[in-house]
Task: inverse folding
């Protein structure tokens, strides 16, 4: 039984712009995992970020209005300035390791066994990464697209670029579903940077699904000891821009223990429930087989003083 129900479609189309002029947690940004690595700097109106592979995984994250898959066009961009950067800083981990920001799937990234430096380990990722120089390994911007099962082939391409502390960079990744290609671009202090390699998904690449933009500091745990690396970097990120596709319009109507809405054939709809508008859990989902009214009901028994529902739409 539900004492009070509120409804949220959970879908917004267009461009999400974040300049961090005010506290971003008021607009849905959340810290997951190791919380000490990202802080909002109110005076500078930006995020101060530490990437430290000696710490557990940490994410400063913004859930997206809807999941994105390889069938969607999307893009994201952000400003970056490094204050310091060092790799090979830990005993037994003398190689390079990435700093990262991009799109992840929340449930995968927060799993207790998620190890970004292991293989197979990560999954459902469309991410910008940069590796600093370590020995014979050159510095590189290396965006990556990792499929849902985490196995090869990945979408991956190195562009050998060194980032210098004190310079302001802007990176953009734009994915086109039609040509299954992610294109990267960069500027340095407002001027065009070098051309970066495209990521073309191979024919045998399966699928991905991402639902969150995150600034990600990954633990170095789980690496192959023969190639293990580490990183400690500090800097800031600002002016995040995320362009998401137009989702189907959802006008939710309350039902006893759930919602009704006009569904579009071919879309998968998930009913999520929350008592605090922060922590959400999936309680029902279905693939719409026709364009018609669809009801999703909460199958749980019990009394909820406040219960909020939202519907997430994903195009498989």
Result:
């Amino acid at each position: 039984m539900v004492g009070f129900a509120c409804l949220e479609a959970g879908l917004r189309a267009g461009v999400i712009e974040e300049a961090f002029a005010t506290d971003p947690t008021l607009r849905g940004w959340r810290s997951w995992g190791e919380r000490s690595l990202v802080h909002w700097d109110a005076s500078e109106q930006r995020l101060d970020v530490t990437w430290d592979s000696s710490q557990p995984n940490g994410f400063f994250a913004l859930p997206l209005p809807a999941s994105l898959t390889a069938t969607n066009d999307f893009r994201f961009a952000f400003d970056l300035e490094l204050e310091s950067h060092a790799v090979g800083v830990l005993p037994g981990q003398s190689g390079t390791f990435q700093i990262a920001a991009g799109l992840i799937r929340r449930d995968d990234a927060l799993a207790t066994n998620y190890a970004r430096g292991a293989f197979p380990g990560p999954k459902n990722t469309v991410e910008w990464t940069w590796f600093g120089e370590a020995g014979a390994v050159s510095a590189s911007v290396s965006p990556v697209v990792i499929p849902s099962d985490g196995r090869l082939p990945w979408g991956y391409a190195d562009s050998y670029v060194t980032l210098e502390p004190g310079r302001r960079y802007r990176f953009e990744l734009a994915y086109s579903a039609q040509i299954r290609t992610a294109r990267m671009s960069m500027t340095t202090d407002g001027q065009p940077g070098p051309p970066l390699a495209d990521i073309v998904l191979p024919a045998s690449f399966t699928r991905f699904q991402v639902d969150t933009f995150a600034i990600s500091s990954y633990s170095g745990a789980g690496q192959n000891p023969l190639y293990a690396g580490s990183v400690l970097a500090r800097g800031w990120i600002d002016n995040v821009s995320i362009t998401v596709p137009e989702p189907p319009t959802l006008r939710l109507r309350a039902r006893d223990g759930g919602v009704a809405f006009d569904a579009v054939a071919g879309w998968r709809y998930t009913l999520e429930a929350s008592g605090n508008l922060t922590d959400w859990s999936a309680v029902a989902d279905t693939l719409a087989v026709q364009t018609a009214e669809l009801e999703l009901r909460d199958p749980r028994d019990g009394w909820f003083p406040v219960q909020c529902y939202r519907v997430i739409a994903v195009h498989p």
